[in-house]
């Protein structure tokens, strides 16, 4: 099981090619790459996105929209346990805090890991 922590320790940002791949994946899913940091501070937009790929795994009603960083962290903790762990991605408390606080580069690393994990899981399901 790969962890987001291991990936973020290895590098602090995506390569140009990885940024392009992520941008293409986001545009295919009707997500504006220019507004990532603000949009994804709360888990709800990610839950909606992943519910398209894994409707049985993600219940978007479980993650109400939040405004405060503390409430967003609560959502991220639940999402980490209920969804990300099943995709083989794990966020540390520090990584959740960085995403909730909109630290530059944090959501991109997470989304790239999720993109790879969801693609891998979908290909296993299709076989």
Biggest sheet statistics: none
CATH domain class name: Mainly Alpha
- Would you give the CATH topology? Actin-binding Protein, T-fimbrin, domain 1
Total count of domains:
1
| Low-confidence blocks of residues | 1-10, 123-127
The Rg value, from CA coordinates, equals 14 Å
Please write the string of helix (H) and strand (E) elements.
HHHHHHH
Helix content: 55-70%
Topology, number of strands: 0
CATH architecture type: Orthogonal Bundle
Task: Describe the 3D structure.
The chain is mainly α. 65% of the residues lie in helices and 0% in strands. The protein has helices at 4-10, 16-28, 36-39, 44-53, 69-87, 93-100, 106-126. Helix 2 (16-28) crosses helix 7 and helix 5 (69-87) crosses helix 6 (93-100). The longest helix has 21 residues, at 106-126. Mean pLDDT is 85; it is low at 1-10 and 123-127. One of its GO terms (cellular component) is axoneme. It comes from Drosophila willistoni (Fruit fly). This is CH-like domain-containing protein.
Keywords:
127 residues, mainly alpha, Actin-binding Protein, T-fimbrin, domain 1, globular
Question: How would you summarize what this structure contains?
Answer:
Residues 23-115 form the CH-like domain. The protein is mainly alpha-helical.
Give the arrangement of secondary structure elements.
Elements: H1 4-10, H2 16-28, H3 36-39, H4 44-53, H5 69-87, H6 93-100, H7 106-126
Helix pairs in contact: 2-7, 5-6
